[in-house]
Automatic annotation (TrEMBL):
InterPro entries: Rossmann-like_a/b/a_fold, Universal_stress_UspA, UspA. Belongs to the universal stress protein A family. This is UspA domain-containing protein. Residues 41-55 have a biased composition (Basic and acidic residues). Residues 38-74 are annotated as: Disordered. Pfam families: Usp. Residues 1-137 form the UspA domain. PANTHER family: STRESS RESPONSE PROTEIN NHAX, UNIVERSAL STRESS PROTEIN UP12.
């Protein structure tokens, strides 16, 4: 039933938790894990770049490499893709245009004003993905 899992990662701590869950699930199901990281071109990309003092492309590649190493270490079949654009749109597009059975994504669980201003990438993926979405919260 679940043979192709899509892991959306940005390299954050919560994305690492999602990676751990995705790798374990892929191993248990003998599924292929497709790792997707997006070099952000969205409305908050410049703000994020200034805060982190790094290039979005380098960030995306690094996040994908870390997830791929985790999957390789667990003997999980893995593919990697780097895209450019708005993360939630790219994740949904990947799930729509590839044979994906489930999306796995971390969520920071923000609420209140912060959530209203910036929204939630995970929430947009849940709303728009053509397949089930497993969200992994940042709290243990």
């Amino acid at each position: 039933m679940y043979q192709d899992l899509l892991l959306a990662t940005d390299g954050s701590d919560v994305a690492q938790r999602a990676t751990d869950h995705a790798v374990e699930l892929a191993r248990d199901l003998d599924a292929t894990l497709h790792v997707l990281s997006v070099s952000e071109d969205g409305p908050h990309a410049a703000e994020k770049q200034d805060r982190l003092r790094s290039e979005p492309e380098d960030e995306a590649v690094s996040a994908a490499e870390r997830a791929t190493e985790t999957a390789d270490h667990a003997d999980v079949d893995v593919t990697t893709d780097i895209r450019h654009g708005v993360p939630q749109e790219q994740v949904v597009d990947f799930a729509e245009t590839n044979p994906i059975d489930m999306v796995i994504v971390g969520t920071a669980g923000r609420s209140g004003l912060d959530h209203l201003i910036s929204g939630s990438v995970a929430e947009e993926i849940v709303r728009n993905a053509p397949v089930p979405v497993l969200t992994v919260r940042d709290t243990p």
